[in-house]
Amino acid sequence: xxxxxRAEIVVNNVSSVIRCxxxxxxxxxxxxxxGEIQLTNGIRDLKAQRPVxxxxxxxxxxxxxxxxxxxxxxxxxxLRRPDLAEKFSAYLNTIVRP
Length: 98
Known about the structure:
By secondary structure, this protein is mainly alpha-helical. The protein has four helices and two strands; from the N terminus they run E-E-H-H-H-H.
């Protein structure tokens, strides 16, 4: 698996900030029973070679790994942007049925 670009740090849109070394670990990671290569297994394999650090995030987490979660995240952040909140909220009120 070759990354599309080379950056020092990659932010996973779901739950992780990872260094690009994980892509190399993923190349050698066995597929699971469903035939997928799991990021967590790649991180586990990388941990055997170098330190891996975690951070317990406190705040709102958005699951952008599915369509509904992605849409919820877009709405959440749009309503918190000063340049969008008022107009976007007004728009939502025109399409949401009471």
